[in-house]
């Protein structure tokens, strides 16, 4: 049994004893998500953040739990835990040549736990990621399975040079607050931060929603739909967010040969992210599709784009 499989087994054993009981229409939610750098606009890419697979479980905790007792003026508290695999690659295709500077192959597999505290016009999320960066995640095997049996793309043979196994831990925080709402129009601000051995950054954002939507603290796009009081949501959402990055292990760690592939002075510490998405909720089902844009993490490389797909079901 590999290190990652032992880690996964321990996580599932811990999660199996979790208890829940907060009063609302639904108490539980499963979400399955997939990210991939297939785009709707512009040339297709297969580099940097090339894919992600996400399985999340949300639940409402007992009011008398320790974390549930924090923030006396909150409306709701919600917990989420998940299993995630993410793959980061250089541009390995000799036909595309989208990048000038190659980065290492990297697989980041982790479990996370997150608490969400909602208020009248805002919410706060506090999270912990714990996992492995390296071959134990089997990100390369998953990518080649997708290429062989789903997308029909070429198999990638350079994964043996990926960043070797290391334990990773990140602490995350996200705060969002409503600025203006009028009928089918909403503007809100959000700030996200991460600190740890894999990612360290600060990212404020300005966000716009157009359509039929619930309160910010209960809406689909922010992962809060388990708390929603509405039977239906249908809206577009766009965001613009500058990121100040302090550390990115998928770029800055040595590969299996002991080489640093991206020189320190070529790593962009400040860059711009943007997104445009469509989100839909009907009864207990929720769906989301979002196009993401990054103007560059490495100096001289072209902007990167990827698509996010999410689907979830709520139940008791």
Written account of the structure:
This protein has one domain (3-15, 39-315): Beta Barrel (Lipocalin), CATH 2.40.128.140. It is globular and about 50 Å long. It is built from three helices and twelve strands; from the N terminus they run H-E-E-E-E-E-H-E-E-E-E-H-E-E-E. It has a twelve-stranded antiparallel β-barrel. It has 316 residues and is mostly beta strands.
Which tags fit this structure?
globular, twelve-stranded antiparallel beta barrel, single chain, 12 strands, 316 residues, mainly beta, 9% helix, 3 helices, Lipocalin
Number of strands: 12
Give the overall shape, derived from the CA principal axes: globular
- Main beta sheet strand tally, sense and closure: 12 strands, antiparallel, barrel
**Helix amount:** under 10%
Structure at a glance:
The chain has 316 residues and is mainly β. The chain is built from 3 helices and 12 strands, in the order H-E-E-E-E-E-H-E-E-E-E-H-E-E-E. The model is unreliable at 11-23 (pLDDT under 50).
Q: What are the SSEs and their pairings?
A:
Elements: H1 3-15, E1 28-36, E2 48-59, E3 76-89, E4 106-118, E5 122-133, H2 139-151, E6 166-182, E7 185-196, E8 199-212, E9 232-248, H3 249-252, E10 270-282, E11 285-294, E12 304-315
Antiparallel strand pairs: 1-2, 1-12, 2-3, 3-4, 4-5, 5-6, 6-7, 7-8, 8-9, 9-10, 10-11, 11-12
């Amino acid at each position: 049994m590999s290190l990652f499989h032992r880690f996964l087994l321990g996580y599932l054993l811990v999660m199996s004893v979790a208890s829940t009981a907060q009063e609302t229409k639904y108490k539980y939610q499963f979400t399955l998500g997939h990210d991939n750098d297939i785009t709707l606009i512009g040339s297709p890419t297969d580099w940097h953040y090339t894919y992600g697979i996400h399985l999340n479980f949300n639940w409402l905790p007992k009011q008398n739990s320790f974390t549930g007792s924090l923030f006396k003026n909150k409306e709701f508290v919600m917990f989420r835990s998940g299993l995630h695999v993410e793959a980061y690659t250089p541009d390995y295709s000799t036909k595309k040549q989208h990048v000038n500077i190659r980065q290492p192959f990297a697989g980041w597999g982790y479990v996370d736990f997150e608490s969400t505290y909602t208020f009248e016009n805002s919410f706060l999320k506090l999270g912990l990621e714990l996992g492995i960066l390296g071959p134990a995640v089997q990100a390369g095997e998953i990518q080649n399975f997708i290429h062989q049996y789903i997308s029909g793309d070429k198999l990638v043979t350079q994964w043996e040079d990926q960043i070797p196994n290391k334990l990773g831990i990140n602490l995350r925080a996200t705060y969002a607050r409503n600025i203006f709402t009028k009928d089918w129009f909403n503007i809100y601000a959000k700030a996200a931060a991460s600190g740890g051995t894999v990612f360290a950054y600060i990212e404020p954002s300005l966000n716009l929603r157009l359509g039929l939507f619930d309160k910010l603290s209960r809406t689909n796009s922010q992962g809060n739909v388990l708390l929603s009081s509405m039977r239906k949501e249908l809206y577009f959402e766009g965001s613009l967010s500058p990121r100040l990055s302090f550390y990115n292990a998928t770029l800055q760690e040595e590969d299996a040969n002991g080489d640093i592939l991206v020189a320190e002075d070529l790593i962009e510490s400040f860059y711009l992210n943007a997104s445009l998405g469509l989100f839909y909720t009907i009864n207990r089902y929720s769906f989301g599709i979002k196009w993401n844009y990054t103007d560059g993490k490495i100096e001289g490389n072209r902007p990167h784009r990827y698509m996010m797909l999410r689907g979830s079901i709520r139940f008791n």
